[in-house]
Amino acid sequence: MGAPGGPPASIRYEVGPGGTIVRELLFPGTEHEMLSVYHLVDGQLVATHYCAVGNQPRFKLKSASADGLVFAFDGGTNFAPARDLHVHDGWIRFTGPDRLEEDRTVYKAGQQAGEHRFVLTRKK
User: Residue of 29, 52, 59, 71 with fewest CB within 10 Å of its CB?
Assistant: First the structure.
């Protein structure tokens, strides 16, 4: 499901070539389809978000625990971070065996302009 109280959303996770990446496909098959790719660079977990607005912000893992992951902004392509709308950072919380929550902070003009929250339950 999507944001609490919002319309349902579909997000699909897949492990990529040789187990080296995890693909997160948001809103598959819609005009808002987006892709995030998680992988290791020199032992550091990083991600690139291929956004429906046409930019590609990058993130690096800031902290990790058994309960979740915190990602920090690490640049990107096709946008000016001090001016343009972009996903700036995010959190993934593991809230149960078949459930997780994701929060993403959105920035515009160099400051926080919103937040997107996803509450996800595994479809069986």
Answer: 29
Rg (CA), the chain: 14
Q: Is-contact 21 15, C-beta < 8 A?
A: yes
Per-residue pLDDT of the chain (124 residues; tens, 9 = 90+): 445 555 677 889 999 999 999 999 999 999 889 999 999 999 999 999 999 999 999 999 999 999 999 999 999 999 999 999 999 999 999 999 999 999 999 999 999 999 999 898 888 7
pTM of the model: 0.88
Print the domain residue range for 92: 11-121
Residue 55, in any domain of the structure: yes
